[in-house]
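Technical annex B. To support the medicinal chemistry partners, we prepared a structural model of the target in complex with zinc ion, based solely on the information shown next.
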Amino acid sequence: EDPLAILSRFQQYLRINTAHPNPNYYEAADFILSHAKSLSLESQTLEFVKGKPLILLKWPGKHTYLPSILLNSHTDVVPAEHHKWTHPPFDAHLDHNGLIYARGSQDMKCVGLQYLEAIRKLKSDGFEPARTVYLSFVPDEEIGGHDGAEKLADSETFKKMNVGIVLDEGLASPDENYRVFYGERCPWWLVIKATGAPGHGAKLYDNTAMENLLKSIESVRRFRAAQFDLVKAGLKAEGEVISVNMVFLKAGTPSPTGFVMNLQPSEAEAGFDIRVPPTVDQASLERRIAEEWAPASRNMTFEFKQKVSVYDKFGKPSLTVTDSSNPWWALLEGAVKKANRKLGKPEIFPASTDARYFREQGLPAIGFSPMANTPILLHDHNEFLNKDEYLEGIDAYKSIIKTYASFVEHTRDGASREEL
Ligand SMILES: CSCC[C@H](NC=O)C(=O)O
Ligand SMILES: [Zn+2]
Ligand SMILES: [Zn+2]
């Protein structure tokens, strides 16, 4: 097929404005459904929450008893500051260097459509899957996924799908190897609050709210620096340390001209975006927060706006095993190799994706977006993807989907289930 036709379908998807806070979900749904129809895939629109359609597509496999493959992607994108872009973020402009500029070109409309294009190619080759392949196009990932992937993973529909492996998004790779993720850090959004006696701005006294809060901030900063040093020294990867970033400070007594300057306030608070690797002992971080960052002895309290457990529902760290006990790894590696590409060392995703809802269920989930030789531009201005990288990604998925969908587990005596 003419690559321009393939690229023009990608551009069409990118031109649908699904940015928060008002994503045009129905237009995206119609677009995906029309593709599904042209590919003769079974389709279903699930609306767990009104106005937020989730599209589920099915390519039935020959062996319905085998666990299925789920290819997940989110249809929403983060907002863009239009005037700061070289090309408008929803034009999907293809420039003379072959770069397609658009919000969602990396995160992650590329992947959603690459799945479909790969299936289009496999179908035209006459390939028939042994395992059922599902595709989910979910809303709301960028705002937490609660009305999207989380509801899907908790649903009866999902149980019936008998999913055995999930593929979801990864990150672009500046070098020639694709990046691949076996887990992700858990978001803990912490608010700490200090109280203290108010008093005259000229008076030095102990236990003010500001002083109490500052002691905590100093303690958090020391911890942050120590974690960051491990990364700077090359001892740990970004996803292997706990990140803590202060995201707001709130204190002071407002006045018509700003803040009252000679009054020490009785309350002060700060917010932190903390990301916790699933390899971390959760209880010890909880103790640190309660004893060092917000100790009651210093008149401090704390609250989590969000706190995702590092453990799955069976109490195990929410990580997908990367050794030989998980055949999907070797299969992925082999399939990527067949497409003449290589995978980097498995990493922990530094932020959050919908994959956590599937790992939470105890399922293996792999984060992977086939973008090599590409700067990491997700959520940035001028997000772009090279057209050839996009097209090669389709071939990578073609190989992966073919490999995964043909995989028939072998029993210990070497006979496949099919033969038994
Ligand atoms: C934790 S809910 C928000 C999810 C968001 N995901 C992508 O950026 C993130 O901040 O990681
Ligand atoms: Zn994403
Ligand atoms: Zn994102």
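Notes passed to the chemistry partners:
The longest helix spans residues 209-232.
The pocket of zinc ion (ligand 2) is lined by residues 74, 107-108, 141, 169, 353 (CB under 6 Å).
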